[in-house]
Amino acid sequence: MASSRLRLPCSVLSALAILIATGCPSGGEDEDSTTGPGSGSSGDGSGSASDGPTASTTMSMPTTDSGPMATTADTTDGCPVGTQGCPCGAKMMCDDGLTCVDGTCEGGATTTGLPAGCGNGQPDPGQLCYDEPTFFGAGSGPRAPLLVDLDDDMLLDLVIPNSGDNTVAVRLGDGAGAFGNATTVNTGTQPVAVAAGLLDDDMVVDLVVANELDATVSVFLGNGDGSFAAPSVFNVGAGPIALTVADLTMDGSDDVLTANAAANSVTLLAASGFGFAPPVNTASLAGPASLAVGEISSDANLDVVVAASGADQLAVHLGTGNGNLTPPTGEGAGTTPVALVLVDVNGDGELDALTANSGGNDVTLRPGTGNGDFGGVIPFPVGATPRGLVVADLDADGHDDLVTANGGSADVTVLFGTGAGTFMSPQTFSVDGDPRGVAAGDLNGDGTLDLVVTHGTAGTFAILLSDA
After folding, report:
1. Which residues pair with 228 in a beta bridge?
2. 273: phi > 0 → left, psi -120 to 50 → alpha, else beta; which?
3. Closest CA to 245 of 211, 300, 207
4. C-alpha–C-alpha distance, residues 454 and 72, integer Å
5. Residue 325: which residues within 8 A CB-CB, separation 6 or more?
């Protein structure tokens, strides 16, 4: 496993009495970014970051507290004894903050494998600081994770649909970067996606699950403590593979929409006050794999965009405001788009479309025009066979960044956004296994975003805590 190269800031070197020939530019510090491994929802794992707490730990430098400390007055061949890169002093001692390694004093920070500046609790633009991933058991065939506060304690909880054992696993967050034991609820056959919303009038978070082989969704009304009432089941189109919750009818109540892979359609379940109205199906393009809702035209109605993996296109369905959708208009995407997010990444006030394309090993951007369509395709390379996509501001610079879960290369790729519709070079972190989905949120309350990645074949999930 490769590790990143670290360089200490000049301010630290000065404090350690290191003699250097050249200094950092005024007030600056050298900081390399790591490229080595640090290790409403769609069935592919697309989405944006959940609101909530964020994570970082303080990086400490080992010291030795016995014996005399070497001073810079002692030298060996012009190299001050006990200082960085020079021989150790009496009793193998080095200046404060340094460690004697094979007779030479070395900075303790070089053993962390993290870029300079990590561990100070403050995210810096362009800086990635993740601890090694920690793995936990999930159910059989876990799909995209969902981070949401289920028990109103201001901590993010974890929900994972397990397609292999027909359950959804719920783990309550502890606020320290981990989760409690799993509580499972039974679903329909092959649950592949889960979303959260307010599906009744009690203002408690509820869950809805897409059951691919049953052509149904299961609705779990929340009790407010992380538990749920027995599910209600509603029919949708054949092969629901992704779903989202949004007020498409503009009546103040959350509706449910599914993308149906076997039927090449979108189903709307409009909230009726006591459940849902009969399903309304709209034909879409071939192979719906993901969907997103947003206002992409100028009429104030919510619209629906579908990633049609069988057509290598985006299917754009404009909304009428009463729940009806127009027939699809095709917009080019990458090869086999499987995850979709609508977000304004170039700061022009219009929603843009981002898709993770499993057949092209890239993410493509289609800038929104505000007229119900999109501009040209702009590709950005990521890992092999990306399946999950999340958009979040990982380095707290005010710009949206991208994270993909790459099933073919067993890693996640991070691309920092510039705020102008472009992204910096990809950085990759190994997470092993068969990544199927990714979610971002603050798991330990330190103000920076952490990652949760599910592994379909291994039946596990990994937590990557930020160490800003």
Report:
1. 222
2. left
3. 207
4. 52
5. 266, 268, 282, 303, 304, 317, 318, 319
